[in-house]
């Protein structure tokens, strides 16, 4: 007796999930490709300009100085030294006619890094001491003071599992800051030995 094998139908719900996933990836790719910031040599958007659409480790090839910028889209981390070194500053969409006065900076921007848009959950583990030692807490949302929430005075290492974060030296998201993307950070010594006490997610609301 001949038996005809009929393939089992693929779940419509499963197909829809795959479709939504691909569309989300496509939209995120477009948004990230369209990130743009324009840097100007002088204050108030004067002088020579440079349009940047991605990471740039050194502005010296394009301009001798930078005293103002216009963030057309996206979120960016700016650095006052080449190669993503030195003090860090978080910029979102807007005009910065004199950012040095606004942020109290003594040096102008020398390099920048685009912060990709992240959709989904955020997760990070913070540790009291270097090399993931001491007290550990897992975070999934913003924290304006880890001492108040966890009775931890500061953290000196972390593991970012999901999302992009900015951590601050002082409570209430104040003081020096550093950008953290997914990865393991065993020590903050190369960040000037900073001890972070507050941190926030870079979520959709910033874009």
TrEMBL record:
Protein family membership: Belongs to the beta/gamma-crystallin family.
Role: Crystallins are the dominant structural components of the vertebrate eye lens.
GO MF terms held by the record: structural constituent of eye lens
Organism whose genome encodes this protein: Sinocyclocheilus grahami (Dianchi golden-line fish)
Keyword flag Membrane: yes
Name of the protein described by the UniProt record: Gamma-crystallin M2-like
TM segment ranges: 18-40
GO biological process: lens development in camera-type eye; visual perception
InterPro entries reported for this sequence: Beta/Gamma-Crystallin, Beta/gamma_crystallin, G_crystallin-like
One Pfam family it belongs to: Crystall
Keyword Transmembrane: yes
Residues annotated as domain Beta/gamma crystallin 'Greek key': 74-116, 163-203
Domain of life according to the entry: Eukaryota
UniProt keyword annotations, A-Z: Eye lens protein, Membrane, Repeat, Transmembrane, Transmembrane helix
Taxonomic lineage: Eukaryota, Metazoa, Chordata, Craniata, Vertebrata
């Amino acid at each position: 007796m001949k038996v005809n094998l009929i393939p089992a139908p693929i779940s419509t719900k499963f197909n829809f999930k795959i479709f939504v996933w691909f569309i989300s990836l496509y939209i995120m790719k477009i948004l990230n490709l369209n990130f743009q910031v324009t840097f100007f040599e002088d204050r108030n958007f004067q002088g020579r300009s440079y349009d940047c659409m991605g990471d740039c480790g050194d502005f010296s090839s394009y301009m001798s100085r930078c005293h103002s910028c216009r963030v057309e889209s996206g979120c960016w981390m700016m650095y006052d030294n080449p190669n993503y070194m030195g003090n860090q500053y978080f910029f979102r969409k807007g005009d910065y006619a004199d950012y040095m006065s606004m942020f109290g900076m003594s040096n102008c921007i020398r390099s920048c890094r685009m912060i990709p848009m992240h959709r989904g959950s955020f997760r990070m583990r913070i540790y009291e001491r270097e090399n993931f030692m001491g007290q550990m807490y897992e975070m999934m949302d913003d924290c304006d003071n880890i001492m108040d929430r966890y009775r931890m005075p500061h953290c000196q290492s972390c593991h970012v599992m999901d999302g992009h974060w900015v951590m601050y030296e002082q409570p209430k998201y104040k003081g020096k800051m550093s950008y953290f993307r997914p990865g393991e950070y065993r020590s903050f010594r190369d960040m000037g030995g900073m001890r972070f006490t507050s941190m926030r997610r870079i979520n959709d609301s910033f874009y």
